[in-house]
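Thread: Modeling a multi-component assembly for a lab meeting

Hi all, long-time lurker, first post. My supervisor asked me to bring a structural picture of a complex we are working on to next week's group meeting, and I have zero experience with this. I have the sequence lines for every component (226 residues in total). Could someone generate the structure of the whole assembly? Inputs are pasted exactly as I received them:
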Amino acid sequence: AQSVTQPDIHITVSEGASLELRCNYSYGATPYLFWYVQSPGQGLQLLLKYFSGDTLVQGIKGFEAEFKRSQSSFNLRKPSVHWSDAAEYFCAVRANQAGTALIFGKGTTLSVSS
Amino acid sequence: NAGVTQTPKFQVLKTGQSMTLQCAQDMNHEYMSWYRQDPGMGLRLIHYSVGAGITDQGEVPNGYNVSRSTTEDFPLRLLSAAPSQTSVYFCASTMQGPGELFFGEGSRLTVL
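Re: Modeling a multi-component assembly
Sure thing. I ran the full set together rather than chain by chain. Output:
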C-alpha cells in the first residue's frame, strides 16, 4: 500500500541557514509527489509537485525538491530559511492511479531561531 | 471564485449525536476528498469521490458516510459521533488526477 514517511517530527534551523526536510514514499507505480505547507490555524498551501521529467523541482517561496527513485525519496530544500518559513510541512503521494486524492506523511514542524 | 467552502467552521457535539459537514466547490472539479487532521498524525484520507454518484473509501472511513449527488457538493456525515472523531476536517477538490488539490479552510469538530 502507498505510504509516506517523514522521519523528522520537529526541526529547528537558524534564520539564514539551509534547510532539508526528508520524505520517503512507497508507491508501486510512478509516484506523483507533493509538498504542502501549513501555517498555524491555516489551511494547506502547495509548495511544489513532481509528476515526471526533471527530478529537481522548483516551487514557491524559494523551495525546491529532488526526486530520487533509487532512494524512494523526495526531500525538500531551501538554501536560506526566513523566520516566516516556520510552519508544518507535509509530503504527500497520490492515493491511487488516477491521482484523485493524496496520502500524507505525518508532517515536520519547522521552527526558525534568530 | 470562492474555491472550496466548508461549513461549519466550528462545531461541538455530544457523543451519539449526528451531523453533516458541508463541502462545496465552484470550480467544476470532478474529484473531491475528505481528510481529518490530528496532532502528530498528518492528514488522513477518509473518503473520496471521482464524480457524481461515485465514492470510495480512504484510509480511515469508519464512522463516516459520504454521498455525491452533484458535482459541486460532497457532504461528510457522522451518524453517531464519538470522542475519537474530535479533529479538524479538510475537504479538497481537483480538476483531474494527478493535479493540485485545492483545500477548504477546515472544520474543527469537538465531540464531548
